[in-house]
TrEMBL record:
Family listed: Belongs to the class-III pyridoxal-phosphate-dependent aminotransferase family. BioA subfamily.
Gene assigned in the entry: bioA
Job description of the protein: Catalyzes the transfer of the alpha-amino group from S-adenosyl-L-methionine (SAM) to 7-keto-8-aminopelargonic acid (KAPA) to form 7,8-diaminopelargonic acid (DAPA). It is the only aminotransferase known to utilize SAM as an amino donor.
Keyword terms of this UniProt record: Aminotransferase, Biotin biosynthesis, Cytoplasm, Pyridoxal phosphate, S-adenosyl-L-methionine, Transferase
Cellular location(s): Cytoplasm
Binding partners and assembly: Homodimer.
Gene3D superfamilies noted in UniProt: Aspartate Aminotransferase, domain 1, Type I PLP-dependent aspartate aminotransferase-like (Major domain)
N6-(pyridoxal phosphate)lysine PTM sites in chain numbering: 287
UniProt name for this protein: Adenosylmethionine-8-amino-7-oxononanoate aminotransferase
UniProt keyword Ribonucleoprotein, yes or no: no
EC class: transferase
Length: 456
């Protein structure tokens, strides 16, 4: 039993915890929900209230909370060893997991470099691509192409390849400059294209122009395949990732796929790139890798990339990068248990009816006068709320419509976290159809309650 009552916990939080991506003055005014337990798709607070976890523990959860098989795998591992190091040693779980990841990854990705969060997984990919060209005798290839609205994490390297001004603008003077390419956002096309069947074409033309102009100095391109997550769950048109792959090949640019949010089944395939038949040169994984249990990340690379780092000690081809908790055996044991569950529970095979159900509900929601756009890719969706559906005028951010809808959702027993005016749908992949109904009913009711037909 918890020795602390809810009030004390809230007070400790208010007094001592500085929350991420949070305006703390506002936070301090509220009494936060204190989560103490989880059960399947539900979070349970210190007063015993249950909330359907509509964002899957910030996009990490796969099999539900407190999943027996993963709990057991972690307990077993704790009794064997908690941590050693990959500096001068290996461990059984890290080795077995690397083999498993290579087995399920897009063909050709055959090496696994471990770290412990999504930002570092991407940053490692960026450093790898940079050093790769140094070793290839192409020292001028030092730049990166990134996309508008991209989000790759919060460390300096990951922010450098990000494209969300609200998050990244303040740090600009600290960052290395990148070449920013337009990204398809069919609902708000920056080229004014209204025919959605043509979405992505102008972006690709512009990307090709940038590559042609800068190929000699570009080391790599970083992309969130299929869905730009934190940018607003913006879904790319079919064929976009494949076209980007072809352009990278044509211009001698390494493709770094950031599958931190979309990896491990989220888009309906194990990895998003597989839906386009694409193998990136480098692929960053985290979030779902341990099904939301423990911090772990992996940056996978092709033999071609790896070979550039092979040499005698004095050749200075070593990849000088590594974190203390790299390859942690408890996290790797959790990841192995999660991958075993993908198979034993036929998780990927179970997704199509759920994906179809979400799609059906979104088609109803789009009729709401303040729902401007709905977009979905597998088990992730975004519902964009607008003040004026005709003109697509957004609600002013000060009105905090997304936040208000999510607050209302709590009263319906659902936890959501918006991205500005976009309501994010990101439930655990294991959610049942009944739970998805509860989730979509709650979102619909919350939008109705917060936004009156005349506006906010
Ligand atoms: N890349 C993507 C696509 C992400 O969505 C995120 C996190 N939301 C990250 C990288 C960063 O991961 P982390 O928060 O674990 O550093």
């Amino acid at each position: 039993m918890n020795r602390y009552d809810t009030k004390t916990l809230q007070e400790y939080d208010r007094n001592y915890v500085w929350h991420p991506f949070t305006q703390m003055k506002e936070w301090e005014r509220d009494a936060p929900v204190v989560i103490v337990r989880g059960e399947g798709s539900y979070l349970i607070d210190s007063d015993g209230n249950r909330y359907l976890d509509g964002v899957a523990a910030i996009w990490t959860n796969v099999h539900g909370h407190c999943k027996k098989e993963i709990n057991e795998a972690i307990k077993t591992q704790v009794d064997l060893i908690e941590h050693s190091t990959l500096l001068g040693l290996t461990n059984d779980k890290a080795a077995i997991l690397a083999k498993r990841l290579v087995d399920i990854a897009p063909p050709g990705l055959c090496k696994v470099f471990y770290s412990d969060n999504g930002s570092t997984a991407v940053e490692i990919g960026v450093k790898m691509a940079f050093q790769y060209w140094q070793h290839q005798g192409r020292p001028r290839k030092t730049k990166f192409i990134s996309f508008k609205n991209a989000y790759h994490g919060d460390t300096i390297g990951a922010v450098s390849v990000g494209g969300i001004d609200l998050f990244h603008g303040v740090f600009r003077p600290l960052l290395f400059p990148t070449i920013q390419a337009p990204a398809p956002y069919c609902y708000r096309c920056e080229f004014g294209e209204s025919d959605s069947s043509r979405c992505g074409r102008r972006c690709l033309q512009e990307l090709e122009r940038l590559m042609t102009a800068h190929a000699d100095e570009v080391a790599g391109l970083v992309i969130e395949p299929l869905v730009q997550g934190a940018g607003g769950m913006i879904v790319q048109p079919d064929g976009f990732v494949r076209a980007v792959r072809e352009l990278c090949d044509r211009h001698g640019i390494l493709m770094i796929a950031d599958e931190v949010a979309v990896g491990f089944g989220r888009t309906g395939a194990m990895f998003a790139c597989q839906r386009e038949g694409v193998t990136p040169d480098i692929m960053a994984l985290s979030k779902g890798i341990t099904a939301g249990y423990l911090p772990l990340a992996a940056t996978m690379a092709t033999q071609e990339v790896y070979n550039a780092f092979l040499g005698e000690y004095r050749e200075m081809k070593t990849f000088f990068h590594g974190h203390t908790f790299t390859g942690n055996p408890i996290a790797c044991a959790a990841a192995l248990a999660s991958l075993a569950l993908f198979e034993s529970e036929g998780l990927l095979e179970s997704l199509p009816p759920k994906i179809g159900y979400i799609a059906d509900r979104l088609q109803v929601m789009i009729e709401h006068p303040s729902v401007g756009n709905v977009r979905q890719c597998g088990m992730v969706a975004g519902i964009e709320l607008v003040r004026n559906k005709e003109t697509k005028e957004p609600f002013p951010w000060e009105e905090r419509v997304g936040v208000r809808v999510c607050r209302e959702a709590l009263r319906h027993g659902i936890f959501l976290r918006p991205l500005g005016n976009i309501i994010v749908v990101f439930p655990p992949l294991s959610s049942s159809l009944e739970e998805l109904k509860f989730l979509m009913d709650g979102i619909e009711a919350s939008i109705e309650a917060v936004i009156l037909p005349s506006g906010a």
